[in-house]
Amino acid sequence: MTTVVLADDEALLRKAMAALLPLEGEITVLAEAENGEEAVDATLRHEPDVLVIDLEMPGVDGLGAVAEIRRTRPDQIILMLTRHAKPGVLRKALKLGVQGFVSKAAEPSHITFVIAALHQGKRWIDPDVSALAVVDDCPLTERELEVLRVTGEGYSVAEIAARLHLAQGTVRNYLSNAMQKTQTQTRHEAARYAREHDWL
User: Fold this and answer.
1) What is the topology classification, in CATH, of domain 2-135?
2) Which residues partner with 102 through β-bridges?
3) Rounded to whole angstroms, how far apart are CA atoms 100 and 186?
4) Assigned CATH for 142-197
5) pTM of the predicted model as reported, rounded to 2 decimal places
6) What residue ranges do the domains of the chain occupy?
7) pLDDT-derived band of residue 15, with 50, 70 and 90 as boundaries?
8) Residue 42: partners with Cβ closer than 8 Å, 6 or more residues away
9) pLDDT tens, 152-192?
10) Which pLDDT tens digit goes with each residue over 73-95?
């Protein structure tokens, strides 16, 4: 029997999965969560074999919740559900150690199969999800993305430098490069451009 916590803000989908997954395989749903904060709480409290979590949720999203869970439960097995995984998002999730990706359009029997595979120590990325992820058109380096991410939170160059432990001149160089590559006039425009293209 595999124990599972389900986290998805779409109540209908979450309830359907909670009802159908145990019918499809040897699965016990320990708890449901409708946002990232609840997902963290439920996972730490119930310690499931597998956390099934939606990528896009209000407040703390799937990636934010996974990062939080990893701090306390570094070996937690995680299956991420997604409608449209962009390359940057998939890269981040893989860095966080997410073991599986399944399309939200998948049949319950397929999700059950993947949960069992992950529980046995395997990894799984649905072909339609991986096809999207392979198309990586981001010209920015990791450091440039990191600086833009902090810029998007409204910090000054000095504050960015302090937060990322970089010299202010280095931060300016990264921002200048990012603006050139995105053909924008300001660092805030560059950050917005990167976000719109799902690079952040």
Assistant:
1) Rossmann fold (3.40.50)
2) 81
3) 38
4) 1.10.10.10
5) 0.69
6) 2-135, 142-197
7) very high
8) 5, 7, 30, 31, 32, 33
9) 888 999 999 999 999 999 999 999 999 999 999 999 999 99
10) 999 999 999 876 666 778 788 88
